[in-house]
Amino acid sequence: MMFTEEKLGQAEKTELDAHLENLLSRAECTKHWTEKILKQTEVLLQPNPNVRIEEFFYEKLDKKVPTRMNNHELLGQSMIDSGTEFGPGTAYGNALMKCGETEKQIGGAEREFIQSSAINFLTPFRNFLEGDFKTIMKERKLLQIKRLDLDAAKTKLKKAKMAEARAAAEQELKVTQSEFDRQAEITRLLLEGVSSTHAHHLRCLNDFVEAQTTYYAQCYQYMVDLQKQLGSFPSSFSSNNNQCSVGAGASVSVPTLPVSSVLSASSRQTHSGFSELLSSGVSRKARVLYDYDAASSNELSLLADE
């Protein structure tokens, strides 16, 4: 009734002080952006909405989420299985198996990153929304009730005509004013705690950035190691696969002949297939990808990784 009268302009409305209003606005803003960041981080860590819903229900039921292979691990297993099928002794099969192992390593790193982010980043954000902010809203609602009681007491005092009624109204106003002031102080203290929340979330953000840095650094190192194993490097062959611009001492993968030896300008006559590679006069390397038995006296028998 009092709220309706205030809306109609028929009753006095007690205004909150500007500081408390600013604190309330900041709390609402914090809640809004915390929800948004939380949601988008969940999408980043698990893009599949069906899986997110499933994990949500498991969490609410307080049950352990079943372990499932992530996309990198699934790809890695497929590569390993196909490499086994083609044969680890073949260039393609061997490369597939090495790529598969690397993909599974990346999948493991991703799993660790997700777990770390969930504990150190998502959980604190969710705790604020489901804990501290709900407490703030509960006390804010009580403050609204106390304010309406105070407004009603003020209106009652204004309408009191008799001395006895006026004295009773004044006493009631004194009590409701005290209760309102007490509730306003409780609400203010809770709202000022949002500053501590910001500081805590800043530390959580730093933890999240560190987890991302570790994850991407691991992935990069895994891929660099894989490149070395495969003998592939950022510099690429020209369209005829005969010319290559690589600095001195760099390793080059030669797909037509898996040979590993240092060749100088003085050894250009050893094999015609390397004539273009050696035209620059710079030393070259090649690494053997897999074992090879010479088919004739014009070929070399080689072991993998020579």
Automatic annotation (TrEMBL):
UniProt keyword annotations, A-Z: Coiled coil, SH3 domain
Coiled coil keyword on record: yes
One Gene Ontology biological process: membrane organization
Domain called SH3: residue spans: 281-306
Domain BAR residue range list: 5-239
Domain of life per record: Eukaryota
Chain segments annotated as coiled-coil in the UniProt record: 150-179
Gene Ontology CC annotations of this record: cytoplasm; membrane
Family listed: Belongs to the endophilin family.
Protein name (Swiss-Prot/TrEMBL): Endophilin-B1
Organismal lineage: Eukaryota, Metazoa, Chordata, Craniata, Vertebrata
Chain's gene name: sh3glb1a
